[in-house]
Amino acid sequence: xxxxxxxxxxxxxxxxxxxxxxxxxxxxxxxxxxxxxxxxxxxxxxxxxxxxxxxxxxxxxxxxxxxxxxxxxxxxxxxxxxxxxxxxxxxxxxxxxxxxxxxxxxxxxxxxxxxxxxxxxxxxxxxxxxxxxxxxxxxxxxxxxxxxxxxxxxxxxxxxxxxxxxxxxxxxxxxxxxxxxxxxxxxxxxxxxxxxxxxxxxxxxxxxxxxxxxxxxxxxx
Length: 221
Prior knowledge:
Blueprint: H1 3-13, H2 18-27, E1 44-53, H3 57-80, H4 85-88, H5 93-99, E2 100-110, E3 114-123, H6 125-133, E4 142-149, H7 153-164, E5 171-177, E6 181-188, H8 192-201, E7 204-209, E8 212-217
Antiparallel strand pairs: 1-3, 2-3, 4-6, 5-6, 7-8
């Protein structure tokens, strides 16, 4: 279950009111932070901003916490292993969940459709060390964010199917989705140029646009 899924599961099972639900979500997912020392000792990252908006406060909190944990992982890599950011920055949500031991929430601000807080995140030392020490299984990988214009639900379904069947994509994450466009983070086993060529054979066009990379269906495919 993903990090967002764990928070959502707490919300579904809670029979408390809104205030009680917030307290349960804060207390239940992870254990208190261990005392690993101060400063750079231990894989603890402090002062991470977590903020998101959604249709409900609960959904906004789930999204903010998940985004905050990923930001904490990026900050840990920048501090401990800057040379590994391209290789390890785009790990899956499931793998990130396994690396997080605990987190604390401070300075909570809850609105009807918005949530903001500051996180202190502790990562499990041994799994992190093993991941940093492991050699990549194949060539270089990278994560890029793309925008996919949509003419309707059928376009989104077709794009998802072609991404799932393409060896040019190691994985992808949906960052935002509306009727008119999707924003995705693609994890590529090689560079963008190699991925573009491979995606073209699957009926997807990966191009550089004025606002960043775009992904779309190749006409007639």
